[in-house]
Design brief:
The protein is globular and about 50 Å long. The chain is of the alpha+beta class. It has a four-stranded mixed β-sheet. It has helices spanning 13-25, 41-46, 72-82, 93-127, 134-143, 145-156, 169-182, 193-203, 206-222, and strands spanning 4-8, 29-33, 54-57, 68-70. The mean pLDDT is 96. The chain has nine helices and four strands. β1 (4-8), α1 and β2 form a beta-alpha-beta unit. It starts with a strand and ends in an 8-residue tail after the last helix.
Length: 230
């Protein structure tokens, strides 16, 4: 039984972000499903913001609030300290800060554009027995995504990675949040060639492909074909 348990769902980009970090670092973990819309009482106690993921480290405690950490960024910081091998946060101060900055940009701006702008209007509506709000998703793709994608394109600057010459938490978080839109819609990145190449490389990594495949399999049950937004 793994020490680390991630409470949540692979549908969440933030759960996939933590899972990807663990896979890249070779850290054993489990994902335990939690319905965030109707969570059990024990989950409410360990998730002060009522969000996923929450991490439990069983080596500290197997129940209660002890050994738990909420918020994906805090979780990733904890895992990085506990398992420093194959670092996802560089030790050089400026590079470290840049990774954290891009991680936060992805957690907020990218997730807002793809998650709230595209994923929710389509999948949440289907989940409630309603018609998907394709118009809202198209609006997000046309008005919210371009600025986000332009910024990400500018940050690659000819490198394979966002910061330095190694994979970092910035690459993982950007990818997981971008791919949230790809769960429900076609997202051609032809106008952003550096970002498109980066995403193609990232999607080949088992740490990204494995968790995404689980989420994609679940989404395809309700939405067999991705929405075309153009």
């Amino acid at each position: 039984m793994a020490d680390l348990v991630i409470y949540g769902s692979p549908i969440s980009p933030f759960v996939r972000k933590v899972a990807a970090q663990c896979i890249e670092k070779g850290v054993d973990f489990e994902i335990e499903a939690v319905n965030v819309f109707d969570p059990p009482e024990w989950f409410r106690e360990i998730s002060p913001m009522k969000r996923i993921p929450v991490l439990r480290d069983r080596s500290i405690a197997e129940e209660g609030t002890a050994g738990t950490i909420a918020d994906s960024s805090a979780i990733c910081g904890y895992i990085e300290k506990k398992h420093p091998e194959t670092p996802m946060l560089p030790s050089e101060p400026y590079a470290h800060g840049r990774v954290l900055m891009l991680e936060e940009y992805a957690d907020t701006n990218v997730a807002m554009a793809t998650g709230l702008g595209m994923f929710r209007p389509i999948f949440f509506a289907l989940n409630q027995g309603k018609e998907p709000d394709v118009a809202a998703a198209k609006e997000a793709w046309a008005t919210k995504l371009p600025n986000v994608l332009n910024y990400l394109e500018s940050q690659l600057d000819g490198s394979d990675y966002f910061v330095g010459d190694a994979l970092s938490l910035a690459d993982i978080t950007v990818t997981c949040c971008l791919m949230q839109g790809m769960l429900v819609a076609e997202m051609p990145l032809d106008n952003w060639p550096k970002l498109a190449a980066h995403q193609e490389r990232m999607r080949q990594r088992p740490s990204i492909a494995g968790p995404f495949a689980k989420a994609d399999g679940f989404i395809r049950k309700s939405l067999p074909d991705r929405i075309v937004l153009t």
